[in-house]
Amino acid sequence: MKLFLFFLLFSVASTPFYLSAQQRFAISGTVRDASTGETLIGATVKLQSPSQNTGIATNAYGFYSLTAAEGEYSLVISYSGYQTNTQNITLNKALKFNIELKAVSDLQEVVISATERKNENVKSPQMGLNKIDMKDLDNVPVLLGEKDVLKTIQLLPGVKAGGEGNTGFFVRGGAADQNLILLDEATVYNSSHLLGFFSTFNADAIKDVSLYKGGMPSQYGGRLSSVLDVKMQDGNDKEYGLEGGLGLIASRIKAEGPIVKNKSSFMFSARRTYIDLLLKASGDSALKNNTLNFYDINAKVNYKFDDKNTLFLSGYFGQDNIGIKDLFANDWGNTTATVRLNHVFNNRLFSNTSLIFNKYSYAIQLLDEKSSAEVKSLIRDFNFKEDLQYYSSNHILRFGLHATHHRIAPSDITTSANSSFNPLSIENRYGLEFAAYVSDEWTISDKFNILYGLRLSQFSLLGPGTINTYNGSGEVSSSSTYKSGEFVKNYFNLEPRFSASYSLSEKNSIKASYNRNTQNIHILTNSSTSSPTDQYVMSSNNIKPEIADQVALGFFKNSESNTFEFSAEVYYKWLQNQIDYKDAAELTANKDVESELLYGQGRAYGLELYGKKSKGKLTGWLSYTLSKTERQFDKINNGKYFNAKQDRTHDLALVAMYNLSRRWSLSANYIYSTGNAVTYPAGKYNVGGLTTYYYTERNANRMPYTSRLDIGATLKAKETKKFKSSWTFSVYNALNRKNPYAIQFRDKENDPTRTEAVQISLFGIIPSVTYNFKF
Amino acid sequence: MLKKIQYLSLLIAVSFSISSCEKVIDVKLNTSANQLVIEGNITNKLGQQTIKISQSVPYTETNTYPVVKGAIVNVTDDKGSSWIFTESAPGSYTFGPLKGEPGRTYTLKVNVNNTLYTASSTMPDSVVIDSLDVKVFTFGSKKQKQAQVHYKDPAGVANQYRFVLKVNGNQSKRVYAENDRFTDGNDVPAVLFYAGKNDDDNELKTGDNVDVEMQCIDKNLFTYWNTLSQQTQGSPGGITPGNPPSNISGNALGYFSAHTVSKKEMVVK
User: Fold this and answer.
1) Which residue has the higher pLDDT, B25 or A542?
2) What's the pLDDT tens digit per position in B159-213?
3) Which of A10, A319, A497, B137 maximizes the CB count within 10 A of its CB?
4) What span, in angstroms and rounded, lies between the C-alpha atoms of A330 and A480?
5) In chain A, positions 718-757, which contact chain B (CB-CB < 8 Å)?
6) Does residue A371 register a pLDDT over 70?
7) How far is Cα A456 from Cα A471, in angstroms, rounded to an integer?
8) What is the C-alpha end-to-end distance of chain B, expressed in Å?
9) Looking at the domain assignment, is residue B164 inside a domain?
């Protein structure tokens, strides 16, 4: 620790000395889209002269800062899909320079193929990072035509889908609850709608999506296996816009515009499904009285006080409702709200201060008269974040604090007087998470860059409450009562993060990284797919923080003026304090739920190959993952390592988009994956009058492989200056292949002396059409 | 309550799944050596009490399970009584007439080829079926009939139940296990969703003869049956199946259960 701080201070402090002969100045500013005023994240800003060439990518708020010796320079600003802007600069004092970039139209894109794309993926020390181009999302064909961020990231290497058509995902052998999903910095606990078939992210409202699978920078923490950082659009601050889409099962609308031109803007986006309305109209009486819908709303307002201060307010609200009339109703949803203040202290120091609220809750109602009951549950956080970025010659120093107060209300059951159920309330649990971090991205030379940092994370379980400690067989071994605010249990962890890149040439580099992550909020679920009734628990006197250590090594190559990108990464990950359950564990509404848990470890390793073509008429990518994911628990599988459910040896995805003409574009994706690891019976016997299966090894068998082709086409209608529209046609599972969703074993109907295995498939061929418009 | 929530959730998921379909497939399976299976029941009904000993077979074989002959079987209770069970039919060891007493702990000892297997189970106090009727679920214009058992759960004690449902003599393929975690001391209506010979055979029809046996079981047996119940519920993407935790020592499969029984019959109108 001390050594680390010393190293950090030394490396930052040392740079001015050897360059002190000449005066140095900083140039800073914000890069925006010329037509909408949206800040551009990750745009490349370069300061070039015959003797010097330094560059940087804009941060999450479009801000950049570069420092160089006094002199004449060209300032070159470029961003994929935009015209490169070059300015001549005389740097003889600190400069402020805001830039607006013009988007290139589709036609131009083909012509201006010489536009230099950034070489960032090769140069940057960051590895394990995938970005989604939001434009690709419009083209990739998906189930029922609902473009979806979470389904598109499943086509990337190292990311595995939770189940067919499901938005749950697993990254590099991690569990579904080990992904940190952020929407404008607020944690989204349950990212799925409609039992997982759709994600909570309405693509219309989203500006930028970054997925970190490894080498997480130290400003991120709290989950083991990945960070999905989703940022909402700010809204057009120059002119009003209205756009939307009509789909088979859902419709969307988005409005944006200036509140005060060039100073303040708003963005409002909403979406609602109407499967149930359609079913009602269809006259199928069996379905008529069922409820099945979701809606979500994204809203954002920002105000630029001046060049140095910008305030952002953003929020999300989403809810699902399913139910059967007079019997059963279940609703669930997330709410997030973020207030942020960007402050530029000077042209080297950028600050972002956030106050964040996020909540996930569900309610289940049993409506039957004699067994009426309502179950409610929630998890709620208040966050404070302070993030500072300091730009010096060869360093970007980043440091900050993050404090979170958690409340989990596991279950609250209310009943009517004549119900057969009793009211029951499980004690709330309170927790405090605190993290401090520092990192430094250090350009040591033209060839060698490192990004290293440290995150200190502290978790405290707080009173009030009666806290039990359980022994190995799940019995209460001691019990204590704590007052409000009293500390029950504290955990302290140091999380080192390190990654480095070494350029073999202008277009080739090798990278290496190591990171440790810890996790204090855990999901308990019996199901492999996300369920709205998943239980959340915190680290406690029984549950230790989960810990993951990951090392990765990669080779990155771009070719033909960055038309092709290629990367190969290998990783190995060790997981500690993983959680599983005893047989027949009672996870819901159980005050002793921690007595039902088992603790073990895991390991995961793999190879990821990724090739992308991002220019020309044909674009797309190919990703392949070869991997292994295992878990080990003393009380499961006789203590031997077993395959995790999501262990799939091969995963392949091919995504292709082809610009046929000005009006037509075509797309296709193909996926192949080894079947999930499952447990099949080895033998059978008879107890209780029923055929019962005998199992030997956990998850030692394989479901059949999955193979699916989806195709799509987009037709742009004739545009006018004021109005644009398009039709998107897609066919999910175009070959109508019956892919396995689950395998069940049962007695043969016609020959009860024998048993048979039955494969259940969810979706056959599903065509869909969506109409999109924009004013 | 949880079972009901699970079942209804599953029902709604299935009713909306757009084109889910089933096909029989060939799967590659591990095989295992035959395992010893002991199924022992001591009930509070005066009569022959039976301990069955058999073997498991590899999955690919027919459902005929080899019986285990020549075992030495005896049962004792915590009051010092001891009964030697004799092999009245191949693999079936009986003693009777004998009546188990609630509150008493019974211990089973089985000696097969000089390997000893033991198990204990305590018979809970008896709770009886008050009545049996038909519960009608309405999904739009579609109605579904299911058997519903009514009983009064004793207050202040933990109770566990297992039900065996037979429709026209065919045992439902679902395992029904309940406890009183949410219903302590109440009049409980428990719906037993029927699972017949195929997916379409999952409801009661007018004229069906329904026979329900209710057992009051101890906690270990509840865990045993509940584990099986969760696995046979058949929710896709659900829990990883495993062997239910047997209360018999020595790695035998099966269980030894001292339980009370209460039976009711009805004809569906």
Assistant:
1) A542
2) 999 999 999 999 999 999 999 999 999 999 999 999 888 777 889 999 999 999 9
3) A497
4) 35
5) 738, 741-747, 749, 752-757
6) yes
7) 30
8) 27
9) no
A174 near B CB under 8 A: no
What b/e sequence results for B172-208 when a residue is b if at least 16 CB atoms lie within 10 Å of its CB, and e otherwise? bbbbbbbbbbbbbebebbbbbbbbbeeeeebbbeeeb
Spell out the domains of chain A, with CATH numbers in brackets.
2-115 (2.60.40.1120), 228-774 (2.40.170.20)
Q: Which amino acid is at A424?
A: L
DSSP string, chain B: -HHHHHHHHHHHHHHH-SS-EEEEE----------EEEEEEEESSSEEEEEEEEE-EETTS-S---B--S-EEEEEETTS-EEEEEEEETTEEEEEEE---TT-EEEEEEEETTEEEEEEEEPPPP--EEEEEEEEEEETTEEEEEEEEEEEPPTTS--EEEEEEEETTEEPSS-EEEE-TTTTTSEEEEEE----SSTT--S--TT-EEEEEEEEE-HHHHHHHHHHHHHHT--TT-PPP-----S-SSS-EEEEEEEEEEEEEEE--
Domain that holds residue B52: 36-122
Chain mean position to CA A201 = 10
Give the residue from chain B lying closest to A694, CA to CA: B243
- Per DSSP, the three-state class of A235 is coil
Does residue B9 lie in a domain region? no
pLDDT at A14 over 60: no
Distance of CA A755 to the CA centre of its chain: 42
Tell me whether strands A63-69 and A24-33 are parallel, antiparallel or unpaired: antiparallel
State whether residue A701 sits within 8 Å of chain B by CB. Answer: yes
Give me the CATH number covering residue B108.
2.60.40.10
The arithmetic mean of pLDDT across residues A691-718, rounded, is 90
Q: What is the predicted pLDDT for the residue at B140?
A: 66
Q: Coil, strand or helix: which one is A341? A: strand
As to burial, measured by CB atoms within 10 angstroms (0-12 exposed, 13-18 middle, 19+ buried), residue B217 is: buried
Residues in chain A within 8 Å Cβ distance of B245? 583
pLDDT digits (tens, 9 = 90+) for A550-569: 999 999 998 877 789 999 99
The predicted-structure confidence for A274-283, as pLDDT tens digits, reads as follows 877 766 665 5
Q: Which of B12, B31, B183 sits opposite A420 (nearest CB)?
A: B183
Bridge partners of A476, per DSSP, are: A470
Paired with A27 in beta bridges are: A66, A95
Identity of the residue in B2, B9, B181 whose CB atom sits nearest the CB atom of A330: B9
A512 close to A477: Cβ distance less than 8 angstroms: no
Out of B31, B227, B254, name the one closest to residue A583 (CB). B227
Phi, psi (5° rounding) for residue B60? -75, -15
- CA-based nearest residue in chain A for residue B61: A754
Tens-place pLDDT, residues B17-46: 444 678 888 888 888 889 999 999 999 999
CB contact under 8 A, A275 and B227: no
Asked if the C-beta of B233 comes within 8 angstroms of chain A's C-beta atoms, the answer is: no
Q: Do B5 and A366 touch (CB under 8 A)?
A: yes
Can you tell me the distance from the alpha carbon of B172 to that of A756, in angstroms, rounded to the nearest whole number? 18
ipTM of the complex: 0.93
Chain A residues with CB-CB distance to B235 below 8 A: 527
**A728-752 pLDDT, tens digit each:** 888 988 998 988 888 888 888 888 7
- Which residue has better confidence, A81 or B235? A81
- Rounded to whole angstroms, how far apart are CA atoms A274 and A278? 6
Residue A657 CA neighbour count, 13 Å, CB half = 20
Q: Is B223 on the interface with A (CB under 8 A)?
A: yes
The total number of structural domains that make up chain B: 1
Q: Does any domain span residue B185? A: no
Pick B243's closest partner by Cβ from A195, A694, A760: A694
Q: Which two tokens stand for residue A450?
A: 């490192």
The answer to whether residue B77 sits within a structural domain is yes
